[in-house]
Please model this.
Amino acid sequence: MATTKKRTQAKQADPAGQLDTQGKASVKAVEKRAQQIGREQLPTRPGIEQNMDTSPIYDDSFPGAQRLKGKIALLTGADSGIGRAVALAYAKEGAKVAILYLKETQDAKETLRLIEELGGDAVAIAGDVGDPAFCKRAVNRVVKQLGGLDILVNNAAEQHPQKSILDITPKQLEATFRTNIFGMFYMTQAALKHMKKGSCIINTGSVTAYEGNQQLIDYAATKGAIATFTRSLAQNLADKGIRVNQVAPGPIWTPLIPSTFEPGHVDTFGHNTLMQRPGQPLELAEAYVFLAWERASSYITGQTIHINGGRFVTN
Model:
């Protein structure tokens, strides 16, 4: 169970004033945009970490080694789950961090608190990555407030299981593609003019791109698109010295899971891996550090790191 202490801390006001200064106005803008693309007709995704009975593990006692000192990172979908784990890892490594989220304000506050507790410098911005205008505004704010942009982590995603392809409505299809793949295009387009040789882009893919998933046809299709997007963008940006890679998680315990699947599926989630359990966000964070740390990964681009508990896939 999530501790009372954690819930209390998450409800505190933003101590450093780094939460989106637009406050309620930004949330209303997100909701207005959702109405335009039909997102309000779908269940809320990816979910709220504060509402989970069993909290994901996103941090440990490792103090970091300043491997990203002086770098500025922007992460989408970073209020909770994998994004939170990576944001904390980057902060420990000395990077300034911008966390983008849809409208999970309480989770974003908690992530900021944790980063500030580490002595890190961070800002949180609410908005929909499926809106190209928001992506431009967010990137410009990060560059102005934090001083530049070296690392882009495209992590935001949503999924809506359906038993049949006939149940996938046009609104669901558009919403899933808008967040999962259009958002990567829009964020990358907005970020590129501020990135330079030595910068990098890291996309969050999925094991579903390689295995497929009978209940997540549209989601898996977007993840397949992300794999090809990663390889193609790596080719396109190689002459600029900007590396592009992806991490493809298997079953990872995040708010997306209990907010998406039926209880029976949640109870056995991850049991079909060799390790017979779901992974934790913390177990992915070091891969994102590795791919962002130029000293370690300067000769790696267009590649995929599979972290899936022993599921066998073709890269």
